[in-house]
Each structure stands twice: as structure tokens, then as C-alpha cells.
Amino acid sequence: MSLDLKALFGGAQGPLVGLDISTSSVRLVELSEVGKDGLRLERYASEPLPRGAVADGNIENMEQVVEAVRRLVKKSGTRAKHVALGMPPASVITKKIVLPAGMTEGQLEVQVESEAAQYIPFALDEVSLDFDVIGPVANSTEDIEVMLAAARREKVDDRVAIAESAGLKASVMDIESYAARAALDRVTSQLPNAGAGQVIALFQIGAVSTQISVMLDGATIYEREQPFGGNSLTQDIVRTYGLAFEEAEARKKAGDLPENYQSDVLGPWLEGAALEVTRAIQFFFTSTPFTKIDQIFLAGGCALLPGLLEMIASRTRISSAVISPFKGMQLASGLRENALRSDAPAYLVACGLAMRRFDR
């Protein structure tokens, strides 16, 4: 079996856009470089997906997703053909392994493949496998740390097929949580002392699940997924007002609901969401040596729900903010700052994927 190098950690050439395929929508971000370290947001757009087209990270209806991506590309106006795509963390097995230093690329490939067989619960010819050399092992000059990543080939192929059917070329396949972390690192680097020594918790509240990542000095110290998301609020709206799911979702986003919505539907949901966050934090404390979190960032489509940030901040008593992955970037002339403010938290993964264009 030949290693499918660059399947998960691939490098990009030329203009490249980030394409995030989530449960509820597809999102696109295109960035460019300005000056030495500056970035400019050239364009961003999203397109909703029909319910059930993507479920649990699996592409259930290829045709619907391809159509949505085609509409998205047209809406965005991008001319870039190369895309960076993300795999859901649950679809990728990652493992840090230690190997002897000084091996050639070919020797590393052979070694990684033999190590992978121990960690991957299915046949190696069914997986896309890649590795990334992290660097020397602390306190040992003779060993290096290597990150091994493997995903079922059919799941990688599904995403590649979507890009190709929409007239694009999949140049990079990343892991969604890694892409989100890259975008988060850029934001935390703008904190006082670049966030050094700060324990930062990121809650990405999606349609059906919340991805929790806790970082310290650029390293992930904890990751977990909880089955809680914005669809449960939409279901509450469906039950309370007798609407179809799609209409409930649209009216939730537009804020076009009866007067008692805030008190009878949204209020209890916010309480539940804050409880989920405080539980997740307690779980982090009990399962790691850490006893504090310095900063919470909220991301995802639900992050800007009225009252959510305030509720979480008061329940956790931790400094909390809604993240914008585009903070500190220049904006292309056609982009409106007001619209961007309300859209930005949902684009963390797409922004991180788009940043792969600048990998050196």
C-alpha cells in the first residue's frame, strides 16, 4: 500500500479557498496576504443544506451537497479552483508517536505505516493515511514526535467528489478541529502577551453538537464533543408554534417569532445551553490536572443568539466573548462590517481552512 501523503496535511499552491461542509450549511472563505503578516478577507459566503444531507459528519445526499456548493461558489464570486476541505474530528484517528530522528522521508513513511497498523481498527488499504513531523522530543535529541492521522478512504473520497462535481479541486484535506484551532491561534495572538499562560476554552456550538477544545500556549490540552446544538432550539420552536422545521429555522434566524418566544422558548433553551457549558467545564476540571479557565470563546451558528453570551458568563463566572476569526484582518471593498459581525462566529473552520493557503 502506498501512503496517501498530503491527504490530510497537504500543502496548497496558488489561490485556495476554505470550504467547510457542516450539518446545516456549506461555508466558503477566501483570504489574501497584505504586507508581511497581514491578511485580507476577500470574500465569504454560506449556503444552507437541506436537512439530512449531512448527518454525523457523513455525506448522506451527495447531489444536494454538490448543488449547495455550486450555488455557494457562484454566490461568493470566487475564481479560485483549489479548495481546502475539513474532516470531522470523529472521522479521523490521530495519534502522536515517537520515532528515531534522522530518518529520510521514505524511511519515515515505512515506519509510520507499520506503527499505524497498531492504532487503526480497519485494514490499511481502506484508509487515507498521513503524518506530520512535530519536532524533537523534549529531553531527547535522538527522537522526534510525529502526528499520525488516518481516515476511512471512502469518507475522504466523498468530500473530494463533492469538490470535483462542483468544478473545484480538493488540494488540502485538514481536520475541522485543527482548522478551528489555527483560526483561534490567530485571534489569541492578539491578546495581551499573545495569550501566554492563558487556559482558553473554545465552544463551537453547531446544529447538532458542540465541539469543546481547551488550549494552553498553542497546544490542545483537552477535546470533547457533546450532543447539544441549535437544532434543539429549532425543534422547541416547531413544537411550540406548529411550524415546519425549515420555517422554524428561518424565523429563528430572522428573529421573527411571537412575543412569548423570549420567555417561553428561548429563555429555557439558554438555561440548558449554559448548563451544558458549565458541565463541560466541570468535566474538564475532573479529568485533567487543570483547575482554571481564563477565557471562554463561543463560535458556531448559535454563538450570537440573544442572551447566550451573558448567560454563560454569569453561570461560569469566566471572562467570555464571541469569537470573530476575521478580527484584525483588512476587508475587501465589497464587504459590510455589520453583516460580517453577525456572520463571523460561524466561519471559524472555513477561515482556518482558508489559512492553509499560507502554509510555508
From TrEMBL:
Transmembrane segments: none annotated. NCBIfam families: pilM. Residues 16-184 form the SHS2 domain. Pfam families: PilM_2. GO terms for biological process: cell division. CDD domains: ASKHA_NBD_PilM (cd24049). This is Type IV pilus assembly protein PilM. It comes from the Bacteria.
